[in-house]
Amino acid sequence: MDDFLDKLPQMDLMRSEKMTLVQLIIPVESAHRSVTYLGELGLLQFRDLNADKSPFQRTFATQVKRCGEMSRKLRFFKDQIDKAGLRCLQRHELEPNIELGDLERQLADHEHEVLEMNSNSEKLRQSYNELLEFKIVLQKASGFLVSSNAHAIGDETELHESTYSNNGFIESSLLEQEMRPEPLNQSGLRFISGIINKDKLLRFERMLFRATRGNMLFNQTPSDEEIMDPSTSEMVEKNVFMVFFSGEQARTKILKICEAFGANCYPVPEDITKQRQLTREVLSRVSDLEATLDAGSRHRNNALNAVGYSLTKWMTTVRREKAVYDTLNMLNFDVTKKCLVGEGWCPTFAKTQIHEVLQRATSDSNSQVGVIFHVMHAVESSPTYFRTNKLTNAFQEIIDAYGVARYQEANPAVYSVVTYPFLFAVMFGDWGHGLCLLLGALYLLARERKLSKQKLGSFMEMLFGGRYVILLMALFSIYCGLIYNEFFSVPFHIFGGSAYKCRDTTCSDAYTAGLVKYRDPYPFGVDPSWRGSRSELPYLNSLKMKMSILLGIAQMNLGLILSFFNARFFGSSLDIRYQFIPQMIFLNSLFGYLSLLIIIKWCTGSQADLYHILLLLLAFIAVPWMLFPKPFALRKIHMERFQGRTYGLLGTSEVDLDVDPDSARSHQEEEFNFSEIFVHQLIHSIEFVLGSVSNTASYLRLWALSLAHSELSTVFYEKVLLLAWGYENILIRLIGVVVFAFATAFILLMMETLSAFLHALRLHWVEFMGKFFHGDGYKFKPFSFTLISDDDE
């Protein structure tokens, strides 16, 4: 048996890549270039040799800080470009690479220029807004003054302490002595004019009334145009006001209230000639400022465009440089302070490539001393690295969401490429719905190149990342739908005529009488005559329930077989003898026997009675077989080893059940705790015995969800579409088609897809992977520029 297994080909895709712990001794003059070239290669994961130091105590902390400051400036430029509504256009000609120091100086100059232009623009904008407000106040306030001189006080309303109005108010006690036609300044009546936000007007008016005890006259009118708020750059509505009062004390109070409410006050002359002359001056200055603002905006946009041409490249450069210095901070200086020493993990196949890259870095740096690259002996467990492509990457991510495989542990993703979409399709089997999924998957694949370059939302990014999963789920759904013979719950005679017909000539369909078989079985899938017959539901229930049991037992046996290959790969004979064999006996003595009975009944039509007593006896024997021998065997091996009779290096679980395969050496001197191991084995045995029953029952979800999907499709087809189609009214038919389409899209294609997806996920994570998968490894995360995201800044 061992010779046969040794002759089997290596399963490279099944296990993670072999990893090697390497050490690099890099001269200081070529360190930066070497790390840069390694980042471009992306096949070396550095270990942090300065984990006990804070980021500020590391060697290259200054360079990292400089890169962080440059990243801040680049983000500032990007925000300014977005705020101005410009686009970052890249130059088509090839730009030379720029040194970090030169880039730092350029960014500082550009930032100073942009900040100065922003400051000047803000001052000009504030002056422009003030002149614009002054112009509006002059235009509106002249009407107040004319009406005051003409004593047109009929439009004002007397305001008492309990009555407030937005149209203004007057206090009769103030005007009783001012009824004579004389100028305002001769009667002692003075005024203040200005402009205030519309939402503050009512509170402002109330405060003025209380502060002056009603001894004032308040007029207001809305401005005809919105004015930009310099602080928020938003257009706001404002109202022009004019307050008539008497006395210096009232003037002081009114000015303080205006300042508190953010109202801007502007002087308005009483003389109409002076008003017109001042208005002309203000209009001239507004025109000049508009031209100045336009010229400044064009100059600022030109400066931002000049930065935008190289912004993307500069951001990439700074991001890479920061990543290089962060990696250099993980290295240590040697005793001479002339070389940097680093350690890291790399795949075994990549050693030659890394060596070539380091030689090229030495040559390009004109270094007299080359980089020393040698392999170290690893004590700790290695990282897990699977080489994936666009198809297998999504399935690997699904498995990694449960847990990263141990180093060299069997990889469930290889089998999930087939089993996952197939179990999904068993629950979702309808080739009409499968075609809809297929169209969605083909759309994502057709736009793959374009969508991969865009920044998608979270939901769309999830769909795009799983496009090949959706494709396989759609293909398997079409296959299972053809087996179930369901197209939106409607059966079709695709593969020939039915094998059944009515019992007699009087019956018109399958609803009124039973069916009799008169020819060979339907060649592929379920016979369409079962649809609508009185025995349809019992027949399909029996078929799908037994099929679920068969698929579940087959997948759980596959998990146990993979546990055998794991134990054999790690050299753990105890796991094979006292774990794999009794588990296979227990599972197949009960449920494997049940599956065999189902197959025999399907093939022969008779109920076979096998040696079930013997099989039950074997199942009972398998339980203590799983429980007792392994802890005592481990205890015996430990005693022999530490009494000096055996000095050989042991495998994984023969030393400790919870120890990684390559870390057995680090646990040689640990105290052997027999009670802990026995309790662990007891829990594992009870979990397997009870789990065999519960896991087998869990696979019945395949039957339940398939039945639910089929019945929902039937309800929507018969009770919505056919019911609406039975009316002659075209509006009712149209409503029926729309409701059927929405129900199919949102319930059957979205909710049912998500439900079947999650149930298939549970079957793989718990029922399948629980038989062999530990999932306590850690991912291989190489230093690679392609893996650096914008968030790393």
UniProtKB/TrEMBL annotation:
This is V-type proton ATPase subunit a. Pfam families: V_ATPase_I (PF01496). It comes from the Eukaryota. Signal peptide: none annotated. Essential component of the vacuolar proton pump (V-ATPase), a multimeric enzyme that catalyzes the translocation of protons across the membranes. Required for assembly and activity of the V-ATPase. The chain crosses the membrane at residues 422-445, 466-484, 547-565, 585-604, 610-628, 730-751. It is a multi-pass membrane protein. InterPro entries: V-ATPase_116kDa_su, V-type_ATPase_116kDa_su_euka. Belongs to the V-ATPase 116 kDa subunit family. Residues 100-127 form a coiled coil. Its main location: membrane. Keywords: Coiled coil, Hydrogen ion transport, Ion transport, Membrane, Transmembrane, Transmembrane helix, Transport. It is found in: Membrane. The keyword Coiled coil applies. It comes from Brassica rapa subsp. trilocularis.
